[in-house]
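Interim report, section 4.2 (structural modelling).
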Amino acid sequence: MVKIVVLRWGHRPQRDARLTSHVALAARALGANGLVLSDIHDSNIKRSIDRVTREWGGSFFFEMGTCWKKIVKEWKKEGGIVVHLTAYGENIQNSEIVKRIRETGKNILIIVGSQKVPGQFFSEEVSDFNVAVGNQPHSECASLAVFLDRFFMGEELVKNFEQGKMKIIPQKRGKKTNQEARSKT
Amino acid sequence: MVKIVVLRWGHRPQRDARLTSHVALAARALGANGLVLSDIHDSNIKRSIDRVTREWGGSFFFEMGTCWKKIVKEWKKEGGIVVHLTAYGENIQNSEIVKRIRETGKNILIIVGSQKVPGQFFSEEVSDFNVAVGNQPHSECASLAVFLDRFFMGEELVKNFEQGKMKIIPQKRGKKTNQEARSKT
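Predicted structure of the assembly:
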């Protein structure tokens, strides 16, 4: 099974707090193994994501503080590839780029920027693929979601999150979990 | 052509500013016709989204301030349906819910909450479909992106945004637009 880790670059603690949380929630819900917040610490986000994982299951990890260059270098050394999500890259819809990435069979580090990213991110030294989820201004949270959904072909959305205390029981109407069966209609 | 509008509910100006911007950017990039920020005004977001549309093309609209009940009522009166995105709903992956929604052939108002939403949102008076992009805690921005991508089956990602001054020329590496051809490698 291919391992996918998200590298979140350029996080600014005040400004990006909720967005980075959402990137992490999306990564977890859509099948990534973990997220590394590079170059900076933000313990509030780590706490809230770790709590979600404790309550809702699975083994999603949240790490932080390591320099992005070191992460990329070690990832490549271990045989993984790097996918950079950017509106300037090859369009995911008409370039068969997801197929090409899948065919490498390798573990994937997905870089999602927050601020404008360094030019280096586009280079061969860093990214093996530059992927655009459409070539319009975008949300990195949305781009990540679409990329993961397409990569896993939806399988991630029905997988079991092991050892979660909480589980939702899907319904046409109302809210139901394994903890309580409240139907609000 | 089916018309899709996003209703963003529960926006808190300070806390949700960037997230709501990202929801709007995702809605635009992934083919929605517009977004209505219900019950509140936030002119900063409107300004920034309108600027994106002016520069990058298309006819995405951003409206705000109308009460959500009024929006839903008028939408239904004009024959449209309402889709509520919630982790508690039917799982998009194994319920054929997108197919059922598509088969109605009707215009779609997609409700995405920010805070915990009123129980009413789950009721027949409001939502025709409650859709879960997986049944795990999620980002509404990510859920919206996956829903739109699946609804349009990717077509939205290669559509032409008319009258945009700026256009990206997709590349394997570097950044290139119709305005300037800079290759950063």
